[in-house]
Hints:
Layout: E1 10-15, H1 36-49, E2 52-58, E3 98-102, H2 119-125, E4 130-136, H3 138-151, E5 155-164, H4 172-182, E6 186-188
Parallel strand pairs: 1-2, 1-4, 2-3, 4-5, 5-6
Helix pairs in contact: 3-4
Amino acid sequence: MKYFINKNKDALIIVDVQRDFCSGGALPVPEGDKIVPILNKYIEKFSKVGALIVVTRDWHPPNHVSFKNYGGPWPPHCIQGTSGADFHPDLKLPREAKIVSKATSADKEAYSGFDGTDLGKDLKNIGIQRVFIGGLATEYCVKSTVLDALSLGFEVVLLLDAIKGVDVNPGDSEKAIREMLEKGAKKALLSDFEKC
């Protein structure tokens, strides 16, 4: 299937491509850095037609509920204002990209870019109907963002070549991809956009 980007109805959502989730970070996704050049190509395509680009980020307070010291499963990561919370330095985000900060309250986990944010409302207000989603990590924040987008009535396209998972348990990422597709997401690769 070929995809043509409609600047009035389509948006690219890049999920949590932050230093702490990449090589050398506090909670690195194996090979997470490898999707950055591919995401840059998607950014280029969406920018070229003037379509909206959204980037989500974990923006945790230092005492966030997801951290091990506070009963969560993860080491401290993406703490507000730290270099670990910065976007990957090679990610070529346009100046006009919309930044969405999530999981900003100490007592609330929020894997999805729609959870506790105005993203859904903001997209609907400007007429966005379809979202293309890539980023980190497949079975956590990407999956939650995809499922929430579907539940809000958006058409969702999962960018298979622009996601990477943690695979805490082997096969977690594949299972998450299957679940997203079963729930209604479509899939795409960069090559599906070549003739746009």
